[in-house]
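re: ur question from earlier - yeah i can do the single chain one, its not a big deal. heres the input i used so u can compare w yours
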Amino acid sequence: MERGRGMSAQTSWISEAPAVNHTAFFEGEGTASAKVVLDNCELRGNSFPRIIGTSAALQRVLGMVRVVAPTEATVLINGETGTGKELIAEAIHKCSNRSNGPFVKVNCAAIPAGLLESELFGHERGAYTGAVTRGIGRFERANRGTLFLDEIGDLPLELQPKLLRVMQERQFERLGGEATIHADVRVICATHRNLVEMINERQFRADLFYRLGVFPIELPPLRARPEDIRLLVHHFAMDYAARMHKRITAVSEEFMTALARHSWPGNVRELQNLIERSVILSTGVVLNGSLPELPPTTQDGARWSKASTPVTLEDAERSHILETLVQTESVIGGRNGAAARLGLPRTTLIAKMQRLGIDRGQSSGLAVRAITSVPITRDAILRIPAASGLSHEAPSSGNSGPHSDLGKVCTLAEAEREHISEVVEMTNGLIAGKGGAAEALGVPPSTLRNRMKKLGIKS
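and the output i got, formated as tokens:
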């Protein structure tokens, strides 16, 4: 997905993408006549984002945009980082009756928690130290328009009731003020986190989740729409070549094949950045480039490397519990049961299994699926010790080394400590923000810090 420049004023959706001839620009390509979804909803104005692709997965998303846009429903967009959640939110706004109003964006993960309330609701002069003038919040700026709350999963717990109130009652007060301000705002949210899991861990309010999730939209990752890669490569190559005044007339088939084989953990954003770099380095009329060394593959074709997205903490926990259940033949209690080996009370393990959706009667099959269905990395995998010669060891504190030696049982705490330590090392100690360990592990930064403190991990 990519933002376009200008479009003619129309109000219709097209059911099929138009054929666009790229022969003049990509003379050597066999796909000179490519279908590109450019004009899904050309509305008043000329700032509608360009949506590139013809895959069935993308078309389903665009169909949902078409259905929900004319309504006032709150929309919750789920999707991995780099899939274009902001573009879909903007498309909903541009296709709505609020298209002439403002489209105001807030990244809840990028603003410090102490300032986020003021950013959202505004503040009066003197509301806090340094507030020398009145500040207008994002809700006021978005009046008669749309407010896009990106990374809603990072909204601090103490602010969630205030957001719920303004959405239900359509009114709020500035920080330090008494006057009630009415808000005519449509809210669209986006996240890459599992909010249901955050509710179970009491990190996100259930009532807010149900209010936000009136109309959920799930964005497919780029690996789920490989037929769109060639179109996106052509689009980005043309765009950057024009900007940099380079006469690129073709993309080498070898380069295109390599792009099609890549797993794209960073999705469309990663592809866009790679094409930009390739155009910068290009010296001829045929665009070539190189990917980071492609990682080896497992038997089922899944790629694993440090460059890939590390397995989340939840997936790692599920995998380790399943493997332990396999070793104990699904026995949970008792001296040699899974609970004892994992260093957990029996009731705690049962609760964790319920939360993670583990059926001990199917643990053997589930263990295989859990290990092969997530993007596990070679260097960031929970190391499961051999089942023979097992002896229980209590978890120790501090930054301990791997506990996967033969003859030892890896408790859940030890496994978590090792996995978190490896991911923190991979991110060079970065916890929060884009590319940080918290994002890789799929948990809020505060949760990760608390877990590291409890496990004795030094960042």
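Confidence is low (pLDDT under 50) at residues 2-46, 294-308, 362-408. not sure if urs matches, ping me
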